[in-house]
Each structure stands twice: as structure tokens, then as C-alpha cells.
Amino acid sequence: MHSEPMSAFYSNLLTLIDENPRFLANSECVQEKNLFPRAMNPNSPHRVLYEVVPNPDSPSLPGVEREFIAYVVGQAGAYSDGHRVGALGSVADDVIIDDTTHVKLHFATKAAGGCLPELENVWKDQCVGLQEVTAALVGGWEKYSELQCDPKILLRPMLKFNMGTTFNSNTSQGRMRNEVIHIVSEDFYTTKFPVKGSVPAKTAAPARSNRKRKSTNTEGTLTRNDGAPVVTQAASTDAAAFQTEDIKLTSRYDPRCLPDHVGDRFAHTEAQVLQFDIRDETNALVPPWKYRAVLRPGTIFFAAVGFRLWEMSPRGNMTRTSLTFQLALKTIKVLRQSDRAEDASDLEPTPATAPAQSSRVPDDVAKDFDAFCLELEVAHSPPGEKDVHMPDVNPSEPSGSTSTKAKKKRLTYSYFML
Known about the structure:
five-stranded mixed barrel, 6 helices, 15 strands, disordered N terminus, disordered C terminus
């Protein structure tokens, strides 16, 4: 039987979702919007989902177009679910990561709340919302149905099904524990540094490559362009020496700040780590070297996401046109960190820092996420014991929320994927 404080936590979680129309689990999030796909760049087959909203200056003026952003809720999955928030991101095992490698983080998101029926319905309704967004990205349900029947098209939906060693796009009701959504970040590393002022930059001296040479250096140490050694398994370094308390959205960090940025897979020379808009329960920014600790399996969070469609023409061994539907990360707000431990070296708590004064997301989204807070004192179980995020339900008691506040009546629909 779960404790009263934990019941209150989930009750408040449901209230937050029910009261905000931007949550994908609510029907008005998509159905009452004027949505349309827009090319990422001129002549590009890749698309971003946009919406038309009333003109803030005057209702009589043409509407304003902006990227469509919705909120999703869930709990962090495990590595086996495709959760990749470390230095390697989602890069394939046989790829050497250098300054030209596009490394994306994948935030595996699963249904939160264990066996609570109301939260199961939130997850199902959220999956229905994903299908509505998918249809909007290709021009409507009729067009989407045509693509489903086209043998020359390979559709990769947003909702995945964990098969243990692989993911496919088939899912069915009653198997929610295996369903997972992958929220994808922008590039984790960048070599584009902010330019101060408008004075043209001086021409940099050409830099030699870091090729291995026969040398009298007995350690065989490779060097970066700034003279520092490239981190290898034999020449690892203390990540803490490269970490800082100056955490801002504009911050850039030395890749060696990441505890798992070690081994022969890494060949960075000029790259720096970007700071994503990820906040903890106190609304403080979480630095990249804490992502694995804060977003470990079982952590409950909200995420603001955009929606993209990547269209890839047949090439090589790929004989069909591939359409990949993707959730693009904008910001994450942690509501409750998990008691489960993924890596003992990552259990150090995030330092208390003042919230950043700016955000990369629209003002209305930033205001929502600043306000999302569930402050409840709950006794956490020691690592290794039962996770308090998965409460047992006493069959003799009513399931779901104990709140006396009226809840939104959910019209949960059956949903399907390819």
C-alpha cells in the first residue's frame, strides 16, 4: 500500500496535466490547433511542425506562425530502453567521435505512475496525441493512411516498442511497460563559438592533425590543438578538474568534464559541450556531467518538445524512402528524482545554483515550466529497495488520486502504430 504523501504527489501531477492545454495528453493540444508542416530549409524534404496563432496586436490581423511546442510527461527509461544521456550519446559502437561527429542525446520516456489507472490513461491519451501530430506532419490522416499502405515507404513513428535487443514500431494496448518515446536533443558538442562584436575574426594559424607518429615519447600521448592531451583509456583524467559552478544556458564546457568521456572512441580537439535547458526540482540548471545522475531510470519529468519529420531517399542498401518522426527536445523539468541508482559515481547531488535569467524556449513555455513544482516531503527508499515511484495499490482501496478536486474526464481512445 502506497503512502498518503505519494498519493498526493500523483494527484498534484494529474492536476498539473489536466489544467494545462499544452500537454499532449489533452485533446485540445492538437485538435483545436491550426497545424501545418514547414520545410526546415528551402528545398529541404525535412519538416518541422508549425501552428498559426491569433495575432497578439489585433485579432483582425493575419495570424502569427510559430513552431508548435507541446508538453509530454513520463519517467526516464533505462539503457535497454534506448536512454542515452552520456558522452557517447546515441552514436553507433563502431564510430570514432571527433569534432565532425553529430552526437545526439536520447531521453527514453516511459509511462509514469506504475499501475495507477488514471496515469495509464494519461499515457494512452499522450500516444493518441503523438499519432495526431504524426498525421499533421504529412498533411492529414488521409495522406498518412496512404503512406501506411505504400510498400515503397518505411515509416518510423515516435512511439517505439522495446523488444529487448531492438526497437520496432509495433505496439498494442496492455503492453505499456514496453512502450517508449525517444526525445532527441540537438548536437551535444559544438565547435561554433559565440562571436563578440562585429569585428571580423583574425585568420587562425593552420593546425596539424592529431595523427599517431612513431616518437621518442614513451607514453605515446596524443595532443589537442590547445596542447592538452586527447583523452584515451591509458591517459584518462579527472573530470572534476574541468567542471565549474558557473552554469548558464550560454555556457560551453571542455568535453573532459564528462565522467564517461574516456577511451579511444573520443578524438575531440576543438569541440565543446553544450548546456541544454534541463532543470531539477528547484528549477536550477543541471550541468551535462549530472545528466546521467539526475535523469536516471525512474525519474519523473515534464518535457517541452517540437516535432520533426526526416525524409531520407533510398540509397545504398536502403531500398525504400524512410520517414522518421521525431520529438525534438526544447526543455526538461524534473519533478521527482528516482531512488534507483544507475552508476554509483554519479550519485553526488546537483549543486544548488540560481535559475538562469534567460531561456531558449518561448516565454510562455518558460513560464509554465518555472511554475511546475510538486513540493512534497516523501521518505525515499535506500538504493536497491523498492522504488517509491512504483506504488503498490491496495485492492481494497480506490485506485488513482486521493485529491477531492474535480479531475478532467479522459476520453481514452484505442491507438495503433505500424
